[in-house]
Structures are given as C-alpha cells and as structure tokens.
C-alpha cells in the first residue's frame, strides 16, 4: 500500500534497492547529498550532481529535465553515511522560471525496482524558493526510513548546500549550474510546430513568400545529322509530314552510291565486285526472249522404227 506523506511525516522502507522518481512542471536539476550521523556533508565527493552523477550506491541524472529517476542502493553506501538527501533546484541562466511558485508543484515518489510505489510526496506551498530539499532517507537503529522534508531556499542551491555544512558551497553550486548549462546547450532543440497546410500555401503565395524560381537552363542544341555521301537529307516540311525525300542524283564518278568506286574502263568495276558485264544488245534479247522455243531435231532416214506395210486404199481394215 502506498503511503502518501505530508511535510514532516516518515515511513519505513521495506527494501534497500529503490528508485526515486521526480516529476515537475518545468526542467529542474536533481541531485543527492550524503550525510554522516549528524547530517553534515563532509565534502564535494559526497554530492551526486549532473557534473558528477555517480557515487557508491547512488546515481542521478546528468542534465536538467522535467522528469528524473534516481537509483539508490542503501546497502552499497559507505558505513559512515547515515542520511541521503534528495534536492531539487531550478537551472540558472537558461531562460526558464526562477522560482517554484510559478510552476506546478513537484511530485516525488519512492518506488521499488519493479515500479511499485512505496511512498509519495507533493511539494506544495512553494513560492520564491529556487531550491528545495524534497526527501531524506535516514538510518535509525539498523533500519532505513523516508521522511518528507519540503524545505525551500530562496537563495538557491548555494544556500541549501551551506545549510548542510558544506565548505565552499557557493563555488560548488556555480560549477553545478555551469555543467547544467553545458548539457542544455548540447541538447537538440525541439522542432517548431508544424504549420497547417492552408497557411503554408497562403504564406508562400503572399508578398512575403519566396521570389520566383530561377529560369531553367536551356538545353544544348543537338548536332545535326549529316546524310551519307550521295544522299540528301529530308527537308523541314517533309520531316513535319513524316515523308522522306527521294535520293538525288549520284555524284559523278561514283558507282552505286558507294564512295571510293571510280568509273574506269568498261567492266572493271563489275569484275572488281565479282559481277558479269552483259552487252546492251544481249540484255535486250534476253529480256524479249526469256524462254526461246525449243527446236525439234529432224530424224534422219533409216532411223524410223519398223512398221506394217502401208495401207492401200482398197484393202480392208
């Protein structure tokens, strides 16, 4: 059963391995200090903060955030440690709130490793304070307990550390705030809210929108096709109609439109190409008499086959 604590109330812890969860209305710095039996912090090495987030049995976050998880192992703490104090402070010089009275009340919960809440505490009644002691875990007669503190400090983190007996509290508080500012500078800023589609189109077309697009470069003209030797390229009108111009007269001295074949003696070009030159009169004769009539060879006398004597006019048949 979860114990809802008020300021000054305590509760026994059933286990020693815990998580302390912090939720705030704005980014805060979360840290913890270790104290002896009198609650005195003996030196900077007993403070876990963003610049030095790990100590034996204790680990805190390395930057300011609206939510934190602090890991605590009470059995791993040194024997001289009798108190663990959880502190919260507002970052300085980052443009955020400067006092807890302008933000939502921070909420602190002590849970087990499985997330089960053991005790909770809401820090109400804060006004001008910029640093606050939220909880303290203390050892009493061999058992660990949690107490809701809620003590605020208007002078900030330096005053709170000095109240716990730390020498050089102002210098350490300045170094902690500097480490927080560096971590915030390295963090990526959230993207701006998306503009509705209609507004984006309207702004682009208005006078404040971007100027006209630069003209596109004109394509380079394609090289003209040169026809082969002995032919003429089709005219512009013929190309538009999808027609092809008939080839013109062949160049003088060329045979068959092929370059390099000069007209020489009759039959020389044909013999070079493996052709046979036929005279004009023979070509005409072959064209007119493609299939000449077949000649019948007369039979010589004495080659007739034997036959019966010739019939007479008055002989019976």
Task: Outline the structure in words.
This protein is of the alpha+beta class. It contains six helices and 14 strands. The chain has helices at 157-163, 169-186, 197-205, 236-241, 268-273, 280-288, and strands at residues 3-5, 10-12, 17-35, 47-48, 54-55, 58-59, 65-73, 83-89, 107-111, 117-122, 131-140, 143-153, 254-255, 258-262. Helix 1 (157-163) packs across helix 2. The N and C termini lie far apart (152 Å).
| Major beta sheet summary | 12 strands, mixed
State the separation between the terminal residues, measured CA to CA: 152 Å
Could you tell me the strand content as a percent range? 25-35%
- Uncertain parts: 187-191, 197-206, 251-261
Helices and strands, in N-to-C order?
Answer: EEEEEEEEEEEEHHHHEEHH
How many strands in all?
14
Could you say which structural class the secondary elements and strand pairing correspond to?
Answer: alpha+beta
Quick one: overall form?
Answer: rod-shaped
Structural Rg: 56 Å
- Name the average pLDDT: 77
How do the strands and helices of this protein lay out in sequence?
Elements: E1 3-5, E2 10-12, E3 17-35, E4 47-48, E5 54-55, E6 58-59, E7 65-73, E8 83-89, E9 107-111, E10 117-122, E11 131-140, E12 143-153, H1 157-163, H2 169-186, H3 197-205, H4 236-241, E13 254-255, E14 258-262, H5 268-273, H6 280-288
Parallel strand pairs: 1-10
Antiparallel strand pairs: 2-12, 3-4, 3-7, 3-8, 3-9, 5-6, 6-7, 8-11, 9-10, 11-12, 13-14
Helix pairs in contact: 1-2
